[in-house]
Design goal:
Blueprint: H1 6-20, E1 24-28, H2 31-42, E2 46-51, E3 58-63, E4 65-66, E5 69-70, E6 75-77, E7 86-87, E8 101-106, E9 109-112, H3 113-119, E10 123-129
Length: 130
């Protein structure tokens, strides 16, 4: 069976692994998922991620906890295959008054909402993280 929304699958696997208290989670590999995970790593929401060199590539994500609680309190998909959400640079959402981040896919790559505003580019709002 084919996966309809691989980004939602990534977010759900991470959310479920953190609720179960797992240290790592394995996710099927793709360039889009690697770009999202790189933003999460740069923002300090995960410890690390590695990719395997197998035929069916797997990304292993090292989840981050602080005093036993997951660092990611809330992670939600915004744009989805049935309803794409595109925003201009001045209309990008601020998550919890700037405490969280929105991950945006732009023509300059996948970046946070703050970085997209600084570059003056808009794009598809993939997800929000707090």
């Amino acid at each position: 069976m084919t996966m309809q929304d691989p980004i939602a699958d990534l977010l759900t696997r991470m959310r479920n692994a953190q609720m179960a208290g797992h240290v790592t989670v394995d996710i099927p590999n793709s360039k889009a998922k690697q770009a999202i995970l790189q933003v999460l790593l740069d923002e300090g929401y995960i410890n690390d991620f590695t990719t395997s060199e197998d035929v069916k590539g797997v990304i292993t994500v090292a989840l981050k906890y602080h005093n036993g609680a997951p660092v990611i309190e809330e992670i939600a998909r915004v744009s989805r295959p049935g309803l794409r959400i595109y925003k201009e640079s001045n209309d990008l959402p601020q998550v919890r008054g700037g405490l969280g981040v929105a991950i945006v896919s732009t023509n300059k790559g996948v970046m946070t909402d703050k970085s997209a505003r600084a570059h003056g580019v808009g794009g598809e709002v993939l997800c929000t993280v707090f």
